[in-house]
Amino acid sequence: MTAPLLSVRDLSKSFPIQAGLFGRSKLAVHAVDRVSFDLRAGQTLGVVGESGCGKSTTGRCILRLIEPTGGSVTFDGKDVRALDGAGQQALRRDMQIIFQDPFASLNPRMTIGAIIAEAMTIHGLGRDAADRRVRVAALLDRVGLKPEHMRRYPHEFSGGQRQRVGIARALAVEPKLIICDEPVSALDVSVQAQVVNLLKDLQDDLGLAYMFIAHDLSVVENVSDRIAVMYLGRVVEIADASALYAGPQHPYTEALLSAIPVPEPGRHKVRRKLSGELPNPINPPTGCHFHSRCPIRKLPLCATERPEMKPCGQGHMVACHMRG
Amino acid sequence: MAGPSHQTTLTVADEPRAPTSWQRFRKHRMAVVGTVVLGLLVALVLLGPLIWNVPIDKIDFRARLAMPSAAHPLGTDDLGQDLLARLLYGGRVSLAVGFAAMLVAVVIGTLVGAVAGMSRGPLDAFLMWLTDLFLALPTLPLLLLIIYLFRDALKGLVGPEVGVFVLIIAVVGGLRWMPVARLVRAQFLTIREREFVEAARALGASRLRQVVLHILPNALGPVIVAGTISVAEAIIAESTLSFLGLGFPPDTPTWGRILFDAKDFLSIAPHWALFPGLAIFLTVLSINFIGDGLRDALDPRKVR
Amino acid sequence: MTTTPLLEIRDLHTGFHTDEGLVRSVRGVSLTVARGETLALVGESGCGKSVTAHSVLKLIPMPPGQITSGQILWQGRDLVPLSIREMNRIRAREIAIVFQEPMTALNPVYSVGEQIAEVVRQHMGLGRRAAVDRAVEMLDMVGIPDARRRVGDYPHQFSGGMRQRVMIAMALACEPKLLIADEPTTALDVTIQAQILDMLQDMKERLGTAILLITHDMGVVAETAERAVVMYAGRVVEEGTVDRLFSAPAHPYTRGLIRSIPRLDGGQGRHKRLDTIAGSIPSQYANPPGCRFAPRCPLAQADCLAAQPPMTSPSADHHFACFHSVPEAIAP
């Protein structure tokens, strides 16, 4: 086996919280809590979880848009956290990001052409402005827009079209990895499918690796080779997509799967319903974070000790005292 | 139907292109009117004294407090001096003070606000403390103190007129940057967290590039409005100083100065106060309209 | 059906006057809601589903909004000409609404109990003590644990899902006959969404309230509604029982919508392309004579661009507006 393109080990990020007027309080939110996974070139890792599970923070820590507080990130053999300014600048060419909200992720004062060309200017790609224009036109064509759109402003486009512009901007530096942070959550169903198909085509043609972040398991199924499920800052299960859907091991994964409404009336499946709400991340439950909502917990251990990741099949890992 | 390779080509192209900034500005009718009025005022104070060459200090007691007439189109003051000539001459000073002080306020305010908004932690806290301090200072006593301390030194350095001018725009502008700084900082704090700025960071854009290309243009709208208001404030502040005898010498007929001189004669010679008042009013109003127009012109989302 | 339906909308047109002209958001919508049933109003953003529902309660800002023509019959009585005061007697008491964002729909400075009690006192004439008791009863009914103690809590002390429960409790407190639920679960996490949908179903069975459910999610439709109305660009394109709509959808847009839902099939989706509907939603300013969906439609022919297709009815409980399509099951 070749070495993975991206290797994340025990990545952690905690945000201190200030409490009180002069609070130098020691409280911290562990937004990302010892997360580990690998991603191979040309493949897609789906990262799934509900709000506050740390999936977006994980993505931003890998890009160092947020500085992690612990763990290691290895990209293409390089230790990302040890990179200096020049190294980090080079890394920015290899890793890109696509955002969730197509209305907030494009500068409203810049034309589409300027937005896409900026990446090339920063990294000195293209001989001159004319050459960059040619490249922008090619990129627009690649993502299903027209070259003449480059003189327009973001507000003239629909959500799906803006998301295509965001994709073109990420592609402009010819990256190897794109972190897709809920790229279709804000779009209508029929447009979601268009954007997902575009991302898949680009992956096939350009050999891109994706880290595809989503809040439910229905969209990622269609893009992912492997899937990691997160809950309150921790990965609770990671497996090949087919294994995860065929035999989910963690009770939270089961609940996420059964919470997806099925577009087949009459086939009311038996829901594995979760009681209770998502706990406050400032003060998560002890032991296994999930034990307060878990339908299968039995061991006293669940409330006292953090379950570590254990193998439970070919490339399948689960963090549960009851399984594995 | 389009073929499969073009199934995603889209409807935007059928609609007309977005207007340029200039086109957007031109559609803002009041802003165009404001530009014309301000242009006229500037032309008048620059060229007027060459055409209407009545001396501004020619005293004529027979014509004191005269109503507008052919000899004195805007009437005269209590010494019989021609008001039109005085307004035209004094306007140069008033407009120059207004614009220069606005520039000082906006530049200092934007710099302080931008630095505070971009730096988290102690520097931000210090700059905001400084801003609050300046806001809390009683302006007038401070003005008096600064002028008493530095007027003579500056006069000696660059000559009496330029000295007073520099001093006045420095103090008037230097005490009006605080609202701009707070506005800019607040804008920066929200805009720097927006995803398009994060996207620029992910592309490796330097801090300067993020500020100049992404944050500042999106923060400009409120700053322009604040700037136009400070022009008006500066013109008024100069007249306060003149009134207290701390501004330009009493024989420099700035608009504010004329207004204050006229206030004791309101009931018998209303025209004396009316015309400088009108001049200040027109200037402020047209600048405000231009500000509105500029704000919209710089925002491509405005279709109107 | 011989009895008067609870709500009947006849050829409703609602528009908004803007600087660039009249935006015709709703272009001739007709639908009925029977007592105690759940009707889903489905469509993508900008299709006019929310504007239709808000028109019923006259919650659209007027001006710039305007109901230009049509009737909204509430138990046979037209609501369109009613004054605001007359509408206020209908709001909350007979027709209630819950919104997408439970964060912004509650007033942060009053406790949830005070807010529910206020509605109850105004519309049911209960005294202060009785109104608070009613609030506790409602909070308990929508599944808020320890309701008696939590009735004095403020909105910020509840999580998103709990706030939506509070909103539903408030809406149902006066026992309205119709609840308009405007994307009630869109802002919530998936596991919470499932809880809220189950709770709504439960409340409907206990109180006999009819529900007009506005949603963009065909999965939610399949799981909660009995009948559905599919809207596209301001018009109804198909209407029918949910069973029929999913087993034999007729309109090409409905078929496209159902097909583009990502389906779980045991992790095998990785190598399949998703079905899509080509193109994007038409401009709201355009007023073409023909079918609004024609530019994106795989079946479109010349006549589609010339005239609006009328509603055809293959059976009493199924109607659609298309010249060329027939109801047919979607091949997997």
UniProtKB/TrEMBL annotation, chain A:
Protein name: Dipeptide ABC transporter ATP-binding protein
Membrane topology: Peripheral membrane protein
Main location group: membrane
BP term (GO), one: transmembrane transport
Domain called ABC transporter: residue spans: 6-257
Record's keyword terms, sorted: ATP-binding, Nucleotide-binding, Transport
UniProt family annotation: Belongs to the ABC transporter superfamily.
Cellular component, GO annotation: plasma membrane
Gene3D superfamilies assigned: P-loop containing nucleotide triphosphate hydrolases
Source organism of this protein record: Fertoeibacter niger
GO-annotated molecular function: ATP binding; ATP hydrolysis activity
Cellular localization per UniProt: Cell inner membrane
InterPro entries for this protein: AAA+_ATPase, ABC_transp_ATP-bind, ABC_transporter-like_ATP-bd, ABC_transporter-like_CS, Oligopep_ABC_C, P-loop_NTPase
Keyword Transcription: no
Keyword Nucleotide-binding: yes
PANTHER family: D,D-DIPEPTIDE TRANSPORT ATP-BINDING PROTEIN DDPF-RELATED, TRANSPORT ATP-BINDING PROTEIN
CDD domains reported for this sequence: ABC_NikE_OppD_transporters (cd03257)
Automatic annotation (TrEMBL), chain B:
The keyword Transmembrane helix belongs to this UniProt entry's keyword annotation: yes
PROSITE patterns from the UniProt entry: ABC_TM1
TM ranges: 31-52, 93-114, 126-150, 162-184, 211-236, 273-294
Record's GO cellular component terms: plasma membrane
CDD domains per UniProt: TM_PBP2 (cd06261)
Sorted UniProt keywords: Cell membrane, Membrane, Transmembrane, Transmembrane helix, Transport
Domain of life: Bacteria
Compartments reported by the entry: Cell membrane
Domain ABC transmembrane type-1: from-to ranges: 91-291
Membrane topology value: Multi-pass membrane protein
Swiss-Prot/TrEMBL GO biological process terms: transmembrane transport
Family in the record: Belongs to the binding-protein-dependent transport system permease family.
Name this protein carries in UniProt: ABC transporter permease
Automatic annotation (TrEMBL), chain C:
Domain annotation ABC transporter: ranges: 7-258
Keywords: ATP-binding, Cell membrane, Membrane, Nucleotide-binding, Transport
Cell membrane found in the keyword field: yes
Top-level taxon: Bacteria
One of the record's GO cellular component terms: plasma membrane
GO biological process: peptide transport; transmembrane transport
Membrane topology designation: Peripheral membrane protein
Cellular compartments annotated: Cell inner membrane
InterPro entries per UniProt: AAA+_ATPase, ABC_Ni/Peptide_Import, ABC_transporter-like_ATP-bd, ABC_transporter-like_CS, Oligopep_ABC_C, P-loop_NTPase
GO molecular function: ATP binding; ATP hydrolysis activity
Membrane-spanning residues: none
NCBIfam families for the chain: oligo_HPY
Database matches in PANTHER family: DIPEPTIDE TRANSPORT ATP-BINDING PROTEIN DPPD (PTHR43297:SF2), OLIGOPEPTIDE TRANSPORT ATP-BINDING PROTEIN APPD (PTHR43297)
Family affiliation: Belongs to the ABC transporter superfamily.
Name this protein carries in UniProt: ABC transporter ATP-binding protein
